[in-house]
Design a protein that fits this description.
about 230 residues; globular; about 35% helix; 9 strands; binds S-adenosylmethionine; Rossmann fold; alpha/beta; 7 helices; 9-stranded mixed sheet
């Protein structure tokens, strides 16, 4: 199925059904591949440390974890870097479960229950918006528009990071189990560009099984940072 369909209602509904039935643990968040957790977090930490070293990410007050689920990325990646982390996910039960999984509310800000296809991050709030293993749930148009709302949600020096599987095929591949698309890297970058983002860093995840799709981390900044008059 093409990733720029104009009426994705059924796809979104099927995805919600899938995620509302997944196990509410790391294995469930990683589609049965809990062994990916450690190398994933390790390489994401290295990526963030490099953004810090290069001065690409300067402030670490507020982050937003998109498609946060039970808060695996919030707990192990974002909380060690940021004073406060907000979370958003379309499945309420996963967000509710996150309190127990994370084990503390210190450092957790707001928890939003909404699909990213409609979610509007609060204006100018975040130093970083992290979008991991969820962008494939949005159509091309909805991803572009979500990126545009993220641009308004970050502070002037803020950064938007995307971590996701990519394919080496010419077209996106649709997974009819969880109802998501895996896009070629070029398409991801094209959508980000169309949304008004420029790529400032990228890296390839290593340490994953060979048979998996490659996983890439991208950091973006707005081409035109939002000013107070916008
Ligand atoms: C593969 S899991 C990844 C969870 C988390 N990012 C991680 O890496 O541990 C996908 C998550 O995206 C959420 N999700 C799926 N479709 C979504 C949508 N349209 N808007 C927001 N969240 C969505 C699911 O509920 C699930 O928590």
């Amino acid at each position: 199925m093409n990733s720029n369909i104009s009426n994705p209602h059924t796809v979104y509904e099927n995805a919600e059904n899938y995620w509302s039935r997944c196990s509410q643990d790391v294995d469930g968040m990683l589609g049965g591949f809990a062994k990916l957790h450690q190398p994933d977090i390790l390489l994401s930490k290295t990526f963030l440390n490099n953004l810090k070293k290069k001065g690409i990410a300067e402030n670490f007050d507020y982050a937003l974890d998109c498609g946060a689920g039970i808060g695996r990325v919030t707990k192990h990646l974002l909380m060690p870097f940021f004073k406060t982390v907000d979370m958003v996910d379309v499945i309420e039960e996963l967000i509710v479960r996150s309190s127990e999984y994370i084990g503390t509310d210190d450092g957790i800000g707001e928890k939003f229950v909404e699909g990213l296809q409609t979610f509007e991050p609060p204006l100018g709030k975040y130093d970083m918006i992290w979008i991991q293993w969820v962008s494939g749930h949005l159509t091309d148009d909805d991803l572009k528009e979500f990126f545009q709302r993220c641009i308004k949600g970050i502070k002037p020096q803020g950064t938007i990071c995307l971590k996701d599987n990519v394919v080496n095929t010419a077209n996106p591949l649709f997974d009819s189990e969880d109802n998501s698309w895996t896009r070629p890297e070029d398409l991801v970058l094209e959508i980000a560009d169309a949304a008004g983002l420029r790529l400032v860093a990228k890296n390839l995840q290593t340490g994953f099984p060979k048979e998996m799709y490659p996983v890439k981390m991208f950091a973006f900044k707005p081409k035109n940072p939002v000013t107070e008059d916008d």
